[in-house]
Amino acid sequence: MVNLPTPTEELNHALLEKKKIRLYVKRDDLIHPEIMGNKWRKLKYNLLKMKEESKDSLITMGGAFSNHIAATAAAAKEYGIKSIGIIRGDELKVDSNPTLQKAHADGMQLQFVSREEYKNLRDHPTSLIDSYPNHYYLPEGGTNEYAIRGCSEILDEIPVPFDVMVTPIGTGGTMVGLIKSAVNQKIIGVSCLKGSFIYKEIKNLVKSEVIKNTNYSILEDYHFGGYAKTNAELIDFINWFKENFNIQLDPIYTGKTFFGVWDMIKTDKFEKNLRIVLLHTGGIQGILGFNRKNEIIIN
């Protein structure tokens, strides 16, 4: 069952009072227990388009711990759709981690390819699309025009006035959806991947959507070494945040994003009297696999 609109919760803390900042969390992690956060938003119109094209099978791509793979498999199961997942890493198996185990249990057919082959298919998907002409193709992370359309509906659900919306950036679709629908608010994206390429990715998506809004910025100081990289400081923050606000964050996206905003508030990077909304994009499914793989545990 889909829970919409998701709640917007205000956080209360002495630091926020001292810095004169009002901080909210848009709880998109509560949309659906398995198809949560921006993944549900991205899938919404893609699934409708798939139905319009009279297709009952889809094919997509992702890494070993991909939130997109997990959510797409769960959605396919719920809506009676056949699904194929092209997974990066030919050393992997269906039981390599909880994410892959769950996707397989949900009925997704997993195909493991080398990292070189994966990159080639991701960057040049035509051969994949041609090989599966009766399947609806979803790109890595689910980002396309229909995903952006779904994410553009988030701002309309926020019941309080605000000045800034902050979102994690992966493939960029969520941020561009927010930029597309923002009127007077500034959109800030926290890049969870290392590298300045994300600027070009966002710029290209903004151009393809013919968006004139330029009131946005990207932070690239909080990736903690790159995609899926973490350290004790980040995990301590995630555990502290849950203990203080009863909101679970993931180590790949929301943990880094919320850490970055909290750090900027502490160090006076935001002007006083701002109203900031943090977008919780879900991703909780990956915590079990993370804890099995790492010595530093997320509570």
Structure characterization notes:
There is one protein chain. The protein has 2 domains: 8-34 and 151-293, Rossmann fold; 38-142, Rossmann fold, CATH 3.40.50. The chain has helices at residues 14-19, 38-52, 67-78, 98-105, 115-123, 126-131, 145-151, 173-181, 197-208, 232-245, 254-266, 287-293, and strands at 8-11, 22-27, 57-62, 82-88, 109-113, 136-137, 164-169, 186-191, 216-219, 275-280. Strand 8, helix 9 (197-208) and strand 9 form a beta-alpha-beta unit. By secondary structure, the protein is an alpha/beta fold.
| General shape | globular
When the domains are counted, the total is 2
Q: Which residues form runs of ≥5 with pLDDT under 50? A: none
* Rounded mean pLDDT score: 95
Helix content: 25-40%
- Predict the CATH topology of the largest domain: Rossmann fold
In the CATH hierarchy, what is the architecture of the largest domain at level 2?
3-Layer(aba) Sandwich
**Strand order across the biggest sheet?**
1-2-10-7-8-9
Largest sheet: 6 strands, mixed
Radius of gyration: 19 Å
Number of helices: 12
Question: Which labels suit this protein?
Answer:
10 strands, single chain, alpha/beta, globular, 299 residues, Rossmann fold, 39% helix, six-stranded mixed sheet
Q: What is the structure about, briefly put?
A:
With 299 residues, the protein is of the alpha/beta class. The protein has helices at 14-19, 38-52, 67-78, 98-105, 115-123, 126-131, 145-151, 173-181, 197-208, 232-245, 254-266, 287-293, and strands at 8-11, 22-27, 57-62, 82-88, 109-113, 136-137, 164-169, 186-191, 216-219, 275-280.
